[in-house]
Amino acid sequence: MSRSRNWPAGLACLGSGALVALSLPPWGWWPLAFVGIALFVRLIGDEPRRVRFARGWIFSVGWLAPGMGWMWYLTAPGYVVAVAMFGCFHGLACTRAPRGRYAWLGFPAALTLAEAIRFCFPFGGVPLATLGISQVGGPLRGLAALGGVVLLTWVTLQIGAVLAHPSRRGVAFALAAVAVALVLPGVGGSSVG
Q: I want to staple 47 with a disulfide (CB 3.0 to 4.6 A). Which of 14, 43, 51, 174 is the partner?
């Protein structure tokens, strides 16, 4: 792959990560998470593993550098290390995500696993700037009552992946997830006394 082709794709990965960052508080534009993920899924496509790792790392930096910016005030070196290391988690997940027919399901699962690891490792993890947090203002927030932030993260990634490559099965899944998310708050609210 030529270097001239890498720059625009790298900038697009950085931009798609920035869209995810803008879905997080304090900005809170939750629909941008789906747009950023869908763009990113298109960018990694069937690329070789080396390219998928690099693009996953760049996407993660675009998302986590602004999303975890508060860390700079606690420890500037720790912030840089955390963003770079968590970028490696996502880059590695992108290399492990299946391609082809089951990519719409495997990609979200691989990145959800990377996020789950980030929630607890190292030193207890950094469970902030997550996709689950990005959805607190949206209709999916009810899923947190059912499966916590990990389920909410997976569904957010799943919807983004379906938007990137819509298939009949994937769209049906995404619609079912949104329907469950809309019903859960009502069910949970009726049991609270």
A: 51
Q: Do the Cβ atoms of 118 and 8 come closer than 8 Å?
A: no
Residue 191 has pLDDT above 60, yes or no: no
Measured between alpha carbons, how far is residue 156 from residues 62, 71, 122, 138, 139 in Å?
17, 25, 24, 11, 11
Give the separation between CA 157 and CA 173, rounded to whole angstroms: 12
Look at residue 4 and tell me whether its pLDDT is greater than 60: no
142: CB partners within 8 A, 6+ apart: 180, 181, 182, 183, 184, 185, 188
**Residue 145 is which amino acid?**
A
**DSSP per position, 100-161:** GGGHHHHHHHHHHHHHHHHHHTTTT----S-HHHHTTTSGGGGHHHHHHHHHHHHHHHHHHH
Q: For residue range 99-128, list pLDDT tens digits in order.
A: 887 787 889 999 999 999 988 887 777 778
- Give per-residue pLDDT as tens, 63-76: 999 999 888 888 89
